[in-house]
Design goal:
mainly beta, globular, 8% helix, 5-stranded mixed β-sheet, Jelly Rolls
Length: 218
Amino acid sequence: MNWVEFFGSDYPLYFKNIGASWIVSEETSARILYGNCSQGKNMQTIKIQKLSIEKFAQYGFYANLLNPSGPSLGASPSEYFRDIIQQNLGPGVNTVSYSCFFSEDREWKIDTAEYHNYCTEACMPIDADCFMFVAPATAGGKFKANTMEAFYIAKGTMIIIKPGIWHYAVFPINAKSVSVFIGLPERVYETDAFTYRFKESEITRVEPWQENRGLPMS
């Protein structure tokens, strides 16, 4: 019996009926497991790393605002942890615009990246843990997929991403969605945002979190 073709969201799936059972083609099996990419099991993969000052320094800096440490003013019941983290808005910018971004759970596959030339970006998950991928700045907007890294971000951790650093939407961990606080110059999405859609050979899968448990926030 010939293969029966069903169409998924953006690619066909192939099944064959044998008696009372259906079998799945090898190509379809690979697409279900590894996403819509001709590389299948050979797709590039990265692991989620523990966030640390040393590892994240080339991409930016961070601070846990829900569990702050360092100098403070006052004491319980009213203690003020001052000047924890700073954000550079870029030349000639005097106003920061605060936004909220909602990111839903989805296949852990990275296929898009963006960067900002002049400003840093503040990013803080509010109600769930997540992971973020980043890659070093490049000349001429030429993305290098083999330089990507992924980091575990605990909720309440403010991340400041340096200008030029490739990044994109976070992925929630053990949650259906995550609400993310964003701080950027007003209308930067029109004035200083450069987006790149990956070539098929650059699409990267992030390994399941179960393989990386036990990575607490430092």
